[in-house]
Predict the 3D structure of the following.
Amino acid sequence: MARNALSFGALSSLVGYRLRRASGAFALDFHDAMKGTGMRQVLVGILAIVEANPRVNQGAVGVALGIKRANMVSLINELVDAGLVEREVSADDRRAFSLTLTGAGETMRKNCIARIQEHEDRMLAALDAEERATLLRLLGRIEAKA
Amino acid sequence: MARNALSFGALSSLVGYRLRRASGAFALDFHDAMKGTGMRQVLVGILAIVEANPRVNQGAVGVALGIKRANMVSLINELVDAGLVEREVSADDRRAFSLTLTGAGETMRKNCIARIQEHEDRMLAALDAEERATLLRLLGRIEAKA
DNA sequence: TATTGTTATACTCTATAACTATA
DNA sequence: TATAGTTATAGAGTATAACAATA
C-alpha cells in the first residue's frame, strides 16, 4: 500500500529515467506558469525562434525545434489567428512562408519569458548558479549527440 | 530556408527547454533500443519497480512512477497478458492487487536493462564518468522538488 | 523530379469523471 | 464515507502518406 517509499531498483541509476521525470516535472510547472496566456511549450518555442530570426521560413523553424512539417501547420495557424505571428509568402520562394513576430507577438513572448524565468527559478531552487550552468552545459552536450 | 543554423534566442539559456530536447532524444533512442522486445519506457519502469518491491500494490507502483490510477489498468493488463507480471488479490485488502514478476518477467527485465545500459552509453558518450554522476545528481535534486 | 506547405489520419500519453467493490 | 481498481472518453503530441503549387 505504499506505506513506505518504494525502491526504484535499476531505475535509480539511469540518466534517461531521471531526465524523463525532471522533464515531466518542468512541463507540469510550465503549464501552470503559462496559465491565462493561452501559450504552451511548443508555441513559446516558436515565438522565441521567430523573434531571434525575423522572416524565418516556417519549415526552418520546424527543423530547429524538431517539429514535423505536417504538425507545424496548425501551430502556426494558432499563432497567426492569435495575432502573434505574421505569415507572408517568401520573396525568394513562392512555395514558402516567412514568419515574423507582430507587436502583440513580441509582447507575448516577453511576458512568457518573464514567467518562464520565475518558473525556472522555482524548479531549480535547489541548485546554485554554478550548478545550473553545469546542468545546462551537460544537457547541451547530450542534445548535440542526437 | 534554413541554409544557416538558426539562433535559438531566449531558448538557449533555459534548462527546461534543454531538458525537453534531451529527454526527447533519449526517448527516441530508447525506442530503438527496445526494438523486438515489445517494451516501452513505462513498461520497463513498472518491471523495475515490481522487481525491486515484490508483492507491491498496483496503486503504489503508479504513485512511484507518476502514473495515474486510470492509466495503470491497461499497462498492467499488457504486462499480465504478456506473462511478465503476476497479479493477485492482496491478502490484507481485497480491493487491491499485489504485483510480482514472473520468471519471464525477470528475464525480460534483465534483457531490457542490458539494452538500456548500451543505450545510455550511446547517449552519454560525450560525458565522462564524473560528468554522468554529476548529471544524475543534479537531475535527482530537480525531481525531489516536484 | 524535388521541395513547401497542406490535409487527413492514427497512435501514444496523459487527464478527468463516473462507476463497482470493498474498507 | 473513503479508497482500489475500472471504464469511457477527451486532449495533447507526434508520426506517416498522399496531394497541390512551385522550384
